[in-house]
Fold this sequence. Notes:
The structure holds two protein chains of two kinds.
Chain A: E1 4-7, E2 10-13, E3 19-25, E4 31-38, E5 42-51, E6 54-57, E7 64-70, E8 73-78, E9 87-95, E10 101-106, E11 110-114
Parallel strand pairs in A: 2-11
Antiparallel strand pairs in A: 1-3, 3-8, 4-5, 4-9, 5-6, 7-8, 9-10, 9-11
Chain B: E1 4-7, E2 10-14, E3 19-25, E4 32-38, E5 45-51, E6 56-59, E7 62-67, E8 72-77, E9 86-92, E10 102-103, E11 107-112
Parallel strand pairs in B: 2-11
Antiparallel strand pairs in B: 1-3, 3-8, 4-5, 4-9, 6-7, 7-8, 9-10, 9-11
Amino acid sequence: DADVTQTPRNRITKTGKRIMLECSQTKGHDRMYWYRQDPGLGLRLIYYSFDVKDINKGEISDGYSVSRQAQAKFSLSLESAIPNQTALYFCATSDPVGASGDTQYFGPGTRLTVL
Amino acid sequence: GENVEQHPSTLSVQEGDSAVIKCTYSDSASNYFPWYKQELGKRPQLIIDIRSNVGEKKDQRIAVTLNKTAKHFSLHITETQPEDSAVYFCAASMSFGNEKLTFGTGTRLTIIP
């Protein structure tokens, strides 16, 4: 689904570095989400935003921050990366008042490795 | 908050046979239950969902059943095919204003030719 894009797709960094993962969407959805995926743990919600002025913590927000620069852009930052933040990160969007309802549309993912 | 448990974590099924994946949830206020499929190296995609006002929903070879009293729901895939091999995630949320999904830990389904 090219409507939701993430950059970079892969990133290797070192402990202590600041990292920003970016998500852009052309679906016109108000709601955006950041998840991390770890083997055996499923998808866990980091932060979510229901509109440009709304930011909410998910179940695992410690060590992360986000910025909703516009309806179409939602960035995730790791201020000081640590090895246990090595994971696959997904951005998602939804539009509950539109035709797609509660369906969440995921980006292609960013594989982050922290050494 | 909501807690979703999913079983089994891995499942191998002979091609043509049926596969069943089960999930339980903890919050009785949850009323929306989607299933996502994630093929190897790909993003999760919605395959079917059910709301708490219905007990079963079908879409060709896949179906989902919901038991609100027991707080569990299941995914059924019939006549399995090789392209059904993937990781499947169940999820739960309160719909209509709070679409914050809580996902299960996933089931890796392998279809044996």
